[in-house]
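CORE FACILITY INTAKE
Project code: CF-77B
Contact: R.S. (postdoc)
Sample description: multi-component assembly, two entities in total
Requested service: structural model of the whole complex
Turnaround: standard
Below are the sequence entries exactly as provided by the requester. Do not edit them.
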Amino acid sequence: MNFAVLQFPGSNCDQDVVHVLRNVCGHSARLLWHKDTSLGNADAVIVPGGFSYGDYLRTGAIARFSPVMQAVQAFAAQGGLVLGICNGFQILCEAGLLPGALIRNRSLQFRCEHVFLQTLTTDSPFTNQVPAGKLLRIPVAHGEGCYFADPETLAGMRTRGQVLWKYVDAQGEPTQDANPNGSIENIAGVCNERRNVAGLMPHPERASEDILGCADGRLIFDSLIHALQPGKSAVAA
Amino acid sequence: MKAKIIITPKKAVLDPQGKTVQNALAHMGYADVGAVHVGKYLEIELTGSDREAARRHVDEACHKILSNPVIEDYRFEIEG
């Protein structure tokens, strides 16, 4: 598979994502600069973490209007798979590709720690390889990861199974203590209605090899790769 | 002309900064302080002379990029 990994001024997880896709998963990945206007032959796009444009104005607000994001908008509109991680999640929300918004952590603290994630549905190109009941142990590192959506939007998302991951404790309970940022309903990651665009605050690329203490994050990349296999329709038409 | 724009968090959205400032003010002894909301203030210098066009453009920019309508409200005035 050919992955495109976006690079904005201030991205800092781009190389980690490329490393995992190339050296751990064995697929092709190339970096695209924010001024690029084409995604080339990309089968999927990863919008990585960092502090694009210094987080000026709001996280993701400036990146969303960059030339490469116009290409991502068109790609997503055609059903192309797009995954946003951390700042990438913030950018996709700002771009309107995902519902809701990410605001300052309720504690006002930058939180950098491992969390447990419950995968709410395996019915998505981002979760299909996660074994039923398995909790993912993946690190977060953010100051603005508190997910917000108005009650009406949230109700629709729940009905359509758009909440993909929630913060839980080691027993799988979505407690307040397990929630690193005060996110509404402990939401850690969501997808769009069409299920071809997803975002999450935790960093799967920082937990995709045993040498890093945990390889659970790889299940998310493996899910994408599985969804892109020839003969598989990544997204229902 | 100059646009003066104020952006505030929507009432339904958590405002941990506002809450923290409110607590600090209470600790300092300002007993009469209620809810605090922390927002943003922007000034934009405008080079055109058509006031209505300026108003339209600023409103559009506020909606598209300067604020996020999911979590923020905005208001502005055109001066000069």
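Facility notes:
- Chain A touches chain B through 21 residues (CB under 8 Å).
- The domain at 2-227 of chain A is CATH 3.40.50.880 (Rossmann fold).
Invoice: internal transfer
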